[in-house]
What we know:
Elements: E1 4-10, E2 14-21, E3 24-31, H1 34-48, E4 58-64, E5 80-81, H2 130-133, E6 171-172, E7 188-193, E8 196-201, H3 210-216, E9 222-225, H4 231-236, E10 246-249, H5 267-275, H6 284-287, H7 298-317
Parallel strand pairs: 3-8, 4-9, 5-6, 9-10
Antiparallel strand pairs: 1-2, 2-3, 4-7, 7-8
GO molecular function, one term: 3'-5' exonuclease activity
Protein name: 3'-5' exonuclease domain-containing protein
InterPro entries: 3-5_Exonuclease_domain, RNaseH-like_sf, RNaseH_sf
Amino acid sequence: MAPTIRIGGNYSTHQEYSIDVFGNTLSVTVTSDFAIISQWIRDVEYNNCGPYYQQPLVVGVGVQWTPPLSYDANPPPNRYYSDQPSRSYDANSPPNRYYSDQPPRSYDANPPPSRYYSNELPRSYNANDLQRCGYYEHSSPRDHYADPPQYNYTGNPSRPSYCANPYRGDYISDTQRGESNSDPPADTLQLCVGSKCIIIQLGHCDQVPNSLHTFLTDPETTYVGVWNSQDAGKLAISKHQLQIGKLLDIRQYMNDSRGKSMRGCSFEEIVEECMGYPGVRLDPTISMSDWSVYNLDRDQVLQASIDAHACHLLGVLARLWVV
C-alpha cells in the first residue's frame, strides 16, 4: 500500500499533515514562520539529544527549488516570467507598434501617460505627426508614481530609467532577475528526525531563527539526503545563506543483499531493497514543479516528506554517524 496523506490542521502560521508510511505515522509541518521553526527544532533536540541518547543525531534532508524554465504557478495578475527578452507583440497595441527590451535614449518631453518614445525618429516628419509615427518602448521607469515623472527642457528624464524590483504587471526578464534563473536558490528545506518532519518554505521566510543555522552546522549531527550534490550550494545562495555540515548521499553507503554497492540505483530501488517498501519513488514531474508557491499541494508535501523521512531511516540503518 502506497503512502497516503491527510491534512491535520490549517493555521495562519503553518499547515499540519499526517502521512501513513506503511503503517507508521509521520507528522509533517509546512511553514515559513520563525516561531514554528524554532519550536520544531527545540522539540527535536529535547527528544533526541543529550547524554541519555546513545547515538548522535541523524537528520534526513531534502532541498527543493524551481527549475529555471518553469513559470510561477500563482503569479500576480498580468505578470509572467521569461528567460528571454520578449519577442511577442502586445495584443492590444495599435498597428505597427512594437516593443523593445533596449532602454530608450531619450524621451519626449510631453509623452502620453505610460508611453515612451525613442529618439530614433523617421528621416522626415512633421512635428504634429510625432505621436503617429513614434516608436514605443515597454521598459518602465524605476520609480512608479501615479503622476508621470517630471522632465527637464532637454527632453531627458530627471530620474533613472529602470526598475530593480518591477511592480505588478511588469515583465521579468532574465537580465532583471539576475542569475536566479540560471542558478535558482532553494525554495524549501525538508528536515526529518524520527516521525517528525518539517518543510521550511525558505522563499517566504522573512527571517529564520539562529537555532536553524546552529542546527544545520552542528558537527555532531549527520545529515543524509539522496542525489543531493547541489543541495548545499542551493542553500548557500538562498536569501538566508544557510550552511550545512556533513551532508551525505545515501547512495554512496547502501549495499544490496549481495553486498553490491547501490550508488547507481534509484531512490525507489534503494528503499525497496534496504527497507522492504516497494513503489516509493520520486516523481520527476513533482520534483520539477514550482516550489516557490505559498500553498504547496499535497503531492509536493507527500514527496518532500517521504524523501527526507526515508533518508533519515536509511541513515540510521547504515549507522552513518560513524562515517
